[in-house]
Amino acid sequence: MESSLFFKHKNATYISKLNMGMKIMNIKNNLRKISDFSF
Questions:
Q1: Read out DSSP for 5-27?
Q2: Is 1 in a helix, a strand, or coil?
Q3: End-to-end CA distance of the chain
Q4: pLDDT tens by residue, 7-30
């Protein structure tokens, strides 16, 4: 029981880190588009 709970928690943190990484990538891409557009 404890191990499955720990596994779920590890999975959740991994997924949230993955989501954060995707958001950062999207922001960087958007910034690049904006800078390309303004220059």
A1: HHHHHHHHHHHHHHHHHHHHHHH
A2: coil
A3: 57
A4: 787 888 998 999 999 999 999 999
Is residue 39 classed as helix, strand or coil in its secondary structure? coil
Nearest of 28, 8, 32 to residue 20 by alpha carbon: 28
Q: Which amino acid is at 28?
A: K
How long, in residues, is the chain? Answer: 39
Q: Rounded CA gap, 19 and 23, in Å?
A: 6
Q: Rounded CA gap, 6 and 8, in Å?
A: 5
